[in-house]
Specification:
globular, Alpha-Beta Plaits, 8-stranded mixed sheet, 3-stranded antiparallel sheet, alpha+beta
Length: 304
């Protein structure tokens, strides 16, 4: 994906010129001789059209959120569950729907990772800047000595591509996808534990993986997983584009630990939630965890 954005500039005119050149290239007689290169050009054309038209069409659509636990053991996995509930309650206040795609729980009800859809007008645009490492400081409920503990979770927000339209808008060569099937542990009816309905896709060039087990059939889970993978690749391409335009390097991986957090939730020894990018603060963590994120999200709208 990196080679697709390395030569871009920030001006609309430059992007239109690059688009014109790529479309001319697509019209050449030998264009499809190298199918892998041709698919890369088609993805680049799609991305350029999106940028020229503006990303607002994705901002107005649904979102897929994945939460991964990082450093902190049981506390981090409990924190991931707290973040899931926070976004669930925020979505309920917005009148959005929520649909669980995959969950990997521990013995205490915490999440090692969890993925879910938020369906509602503007969900992605509202929450896309929630992506990043979140940090919690509190007295650990898993420590018998009542010691203070710091834990971390990573929130990833990507647009939910329409299953049918996403294939045309962001095609991924089959040779780049590794497919794994397993017995689903999530919702799906009586047959869910008897058939391999759970689908895990790995995009081999980037190592990006997605897992969906929410549907009854393997085919439905695969479709959702493909749409989810396209969303992740789109988000990655956007980050690479922004880094190229700003001249800043953006790491392809984020360690879920100290030094990378975008927001801190401190419950002990004092109460404070602070976003480290916008400097917005709240002295009421309980209210924030109850889904009242409006002041943070409003401030995030100015983030580039």
């Amino acid at each position: 994906m990196a080679e697709m954005n390395s030569k871009k500039t920030g001006s609309k005119e430059a992007k239109e010129e690059q688009l014109r050149q790529l479309e001319e290239r697509m019209g050449s007689a030998d264009f499809w001789n190298d199918k892998v290169a041709a698919q890369a050009v088609l993805r680049e054309i799609s991305l350029l059209k999106d940028e020229i038209l503006g990303a607002e069409k994705y901002d107005k659509g649904d979102a897929i959120i994945t939460i991964f636990s990082g450093a902190g053991g049981d506390d981090a996995e409990d924190f991931s569950h707290m973040l899931f509930e926070m976004y669930r309650k925020y979505a309920a206040r917005q009148g959005w729907g929520i649909y669980l795609l995959h969950e990997h729980k521990n013995d205490h009800g915490g999440y090692r990772n969890v993925a879910f859809e938020l369906t509602g007008k503007g969900a992605y645009g509202m929450l896309k800047n929630e992506s990043g490492v979140h940090r919690l400081v509190r007295i650990s409920p898993f420590n018998s000595k009542d010691q203070r503990h710091t834990s971390f979770s990573l929130v990833e927000v990507v647009p939910r591509f329409d299953v049918a339209a996403s294939a045309a808008a962001f095609e991924i060569p089959e040779s780049e996808i590794e497919i794994q099937y397993a017995r689903s542990s999530g919702p799906g009816g009586q047959n869910v534990n008897k058939r391999e309905t759970s689908v895990r896709l790995v995009h081999t060039p980037t190592k990006i993986a997605v897992h969906v087990e929410s549907e009854r059939s393997q085919g439905q889970n695969k479709e959702k997983a493909l749409a989810m993978l396209r969303g992740k690749l789109y988000k990655r391409a956007e980050e690479e584009r922004k880094s190229a335009e700003s001249g800043m390097y953006v790491s392809k991986t984020t360690d879920i630990e100290w030094g990378n957090q975008i927001r801190s939730y401190v419950v002990h020894p004092y109460k404070m939630v602070k976003d480290l990018r916008t400097n917005v603060e709240s002295s009421n963590p309980d209210k924030v965890f109850d889904g009242y994120l409006d002041e943070f999200i409003e401030a995030e709208k100015n983030l580039q």
